[in-house]
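Quick one:
INPUT:
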């Protein structure tokens, strides 16, 4: 059977194909002469399935889409505090190449504008590493996000370097504030190589899927960076990824995203999918025109906005009943689905509102798919209080969702794999 998702993507790119608005980036001949008609869209799921339509394997330079990934590498290599001391996390509402630094500190406002990205490039690798090794660390890191070895477009790199006056000016300003402590030219050189890494739309979707999959590449299985780094990166993408169009993007599309001047655009929807589009004509902010149109359509058609309110937790208690009778009666709360704060609150409230009269109370997790940390803590507090109130507690946990042995703060609890055979004393 033909894939429903691929057919959807083929229809979507067909719909935007007529849009000729925007212009190619013109600051170097290699970008000005690109084929403006190229168009592609790819979805990569967090379990590694890839769906695409259009020119999904056409290579182009990653440009500014490298910024969130290199920010992730800097955070992984130097830690949050060291990076935050040099680069802020506030949206600047300014163009990507604005020459502006925070008054007083000289810090770039965020890592998505060039000033911040040049600084984060310098923070990749271990302190004191030589420029060439640092650039290699960056290219290796980008390759790990993509799950394959990426190379550099040398012609674009050379041409960018010859036209790098503005980025050099930014780097010299950063050096004058001691935000950069090394030779500004070497750092810009490395940053430009980073921007000239060749990717396809398929690569970008896999890189975005690695962000969506908490830092684990869905294809190679490699853990590229820790989950805490990813949350930080996605937050900055959500607030600053689209430069001076970030607010519009947040309301219209609502997916953490990043664009590049060669026409690429990525979005990472946590826990679901990495999305990439490619179409080289740009709007006045430097974002791909047809890419924006595609993302607006994806978000509306598929309910992908991260601020969409998820289904309520009302169904976590599947049933609340008594098995057996007399002194053998067991009050059973059969739970289901994924349990987070709102679900755990519902369970705890049910018990608080109608205190069980039976001596034995069982929490049955057989149909539960996941319980996050806060929900585990709340259910342990519930078992502790019931134990303290004189009840005998049973936890039916066949998939070992709770750690074994249960932490002592849960009170006295019998953990069993099934309720059959577990009888009241
Ligand atoms: N190499 C470009 C620059 O630094 C990247 C900018 C972009 O993609 N927005 O100016």
């Amino acid at each position: 059977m033909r894939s429903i998702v691929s057919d959807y993507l083929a229809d979507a790119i067909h719909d935007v194909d007529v849009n000729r608005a925007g212009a190619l980036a013109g600051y170097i001949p290699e970008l000005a002469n690109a084929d403006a008609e190229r168009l592609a869209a790819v979805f990569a799921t967090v379990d590694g399935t890839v769906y695409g339509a259009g020119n999904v394997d056409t290579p182009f330079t990653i440009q500014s889409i490298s910024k969130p990934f290199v920010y992730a590498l800097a955070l992984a290599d130097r830690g949050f505090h060291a990076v935050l001391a040099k680069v802020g996390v506030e949206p600047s509402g300014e163009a990507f190449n604005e020459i502006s630094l925070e008054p007083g500190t000289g810090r770039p406002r965020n890592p998505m504008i060039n000033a911040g990205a040049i600084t984060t490039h310098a923070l990749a690798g271990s302190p004191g590493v030589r420029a060439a090794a640092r650039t290699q660390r960056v290219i290796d890191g980008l390759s790990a996000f993509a799950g394959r070895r990426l190379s550099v477009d040398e012609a674009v790199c050379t041409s960018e370097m010859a036209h790098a006056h503005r980025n050099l000016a930014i780097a010299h300003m950063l050096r004058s504030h001691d935000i950069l402590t090394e030779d500004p030219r070497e750092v810009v050189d490395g940053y430009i190589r980073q921007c000239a890494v060749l990717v396809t739309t398929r690569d970008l979707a896999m890189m975005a899927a690695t962000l969506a999959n908490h830092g684990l590449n869905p294809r190679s299985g490699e853990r590229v960076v820790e989950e805490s780094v990813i949350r930080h990166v996605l937050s900055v993408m959500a607030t600053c990824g689209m430069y001076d169009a970030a607010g519009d993007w947040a309301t219209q599309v609502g997916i953490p995203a990043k664009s590049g001047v060669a026409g690429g655009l990525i979005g990472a929807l946590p826990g679901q999918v990495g999305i990439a589009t490619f179409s080289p004509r740009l709007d006045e902010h430097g974002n791909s025109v047809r890419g924006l149109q595609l993302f607006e359509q994806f978000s509306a058609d598929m309910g992908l906005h991260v601020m969409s309110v998820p289904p309520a937790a009302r169904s976590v208690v599947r049933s609340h009943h008594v098995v057996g009778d007399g002194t053998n009666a067991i009050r059973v709360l059969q739970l289901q689905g994924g349990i987070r704060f709102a679900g755990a609150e519902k369970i705890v409230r049910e018990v608080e509102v109608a205190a069980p009269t039976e001596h034995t109370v069982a929490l049955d997790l057989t149909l539960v798919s996941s319980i996050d940390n806060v929900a585990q803590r709340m259910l342990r507090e519930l078992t502790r209080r019931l134990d303290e109130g004189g009840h005998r507690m049973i936890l039916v946990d066949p998939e070992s969702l709770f750690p074994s042995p249960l932490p002592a703060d849960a009170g006295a609890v019998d953990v069993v794999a099934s309720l059959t055979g577990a009888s009241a004393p």
